[in-house]
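Batch manifest, entry 17 of 40.
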Amino acid sequence: MPSGRVIVAFGYHGDCFHGSQIQPDIRTVEGSLQKALKKLTWWSEGCLEICSRTDAGVSVRMNLACITLPKSLIKQVPPKSMLRAINDNLPTGMVMWHVQEVPLNTRSRKANYRHYLYRLEAVDDWPYFPEKNLIEEACSAIQGRHDFTNLCKIEGDINPIRIIDECSPWVDSSGKIIGISVKARAFLWNQVRRIASAVSGVVSGRITLDDLISALENPDVPVDLGRANSDGLILWSISHDEIDGKVNSIIPEINFTKRPEDTREYVRWLSLMRHEMAAFLEREWLIRLKLE
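Output type: structure tokens
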């Protein structure tokens, strides 16, 4: 039977899954997609390829996956019906919002770049009145080609050198600093969360800009600049030749509540922040589904 291929865009709330990679007896993103395809009798061994893996707790507005299906099925089931069928079989906290047919040799992992957002108010030491020049200087130090040994968790013999195409402040419509926007072709394990901790550290005074620069320029000298929690992290979008131009990845204007200055209030506010981040994603998915 001739095979065809579709590429899909999907998202999920990080606290609903134990990471993205399949694990036995644990709800994961890959496992949930596999179960949905099996319920629809659309599953075949090796038919699913996910673009980016994420750690437990990390939320995703847009990930990509390629699915190999019978060519006859792709022709008979229009994209809108395919989305509805798969979504009807996905667990709460996960949604597929775009599907299109692509050439059979398309690989979802061949992304041009991945784009992450991190809401720095989620970091304990983020100051109530952050200085914009400090975050700009820290972001500038991160941007470019570096050995990120001190700002990631190394897996085996993987190359720790990466090129950060963009690291810039993420601001709201009033100019208030929300966090950072980071783009690269590929990231290392925990890299964005450690970058977020380092940037927050420079702005709060926990570390100096020289400390950050030294950690990048001297990867053979181990230093721990911290790892921000997963609550503030979103994989916002993925650029891919087959999908660019069909999916809007512009960050909308947003006005989140401001983090309280009082420490006790801050602990309670973190729950509100999580709800705000979840609502931020839900609005995006609803808009995309209406446009399909």
